[in-house]
Amino acid sequence: MKDLRFSKNLIGLGESITRSVQFSDTEIGLDIPEIEFLQFIEGEIRFLRLSEGLYFKGSLQSNIEIPCRRCLALYETKLHVPFSLDLIDNMDLADRMVDGEVIDLTEDLKQTIALEIPCWPLCRDVCQGLCVSCGCNLNSQTCSCQSDLTTSSPFGNLENMLQSTDSNTNN
Which of 6, 23, 97, 98, by CA, is between 20 and 30 Å from 67? Predict the structure, then answer.
């Protein structure tokens, strides 16, 4: 991806440049089946060259659609990706070089974006999830299954055991 390649000879020592970038998830090979990017990933990358190395800092954002882990409903959320990368020694640079003078940040940004995607996304903090018996979404409807969880729940027997232990202790 051309926008994510920086020539180390582009600027002199002690100088920096800022580049606006815009790309799609498919352009950088970001393939996460359950997530849909609703718009381009965009932001700015600042490139600084010092005598001891190259430094990149920036921020990217996009809107994604992702399933809630409790109720499975798709919801839209903003993805904000701050990043910083320091390439100080020749080994760091060698892994990212293209044509000897160009640093490609595609793989670094792909991994950083993937790490910023929520691993336990919730449509809202108070999401009630799905009914364990009938599977209905408890955020949008109620079901009769929930009236007596002590008999239908696998933990209902545990509750009954605890109650009988408490009554034996009191006697």
Answer: 23
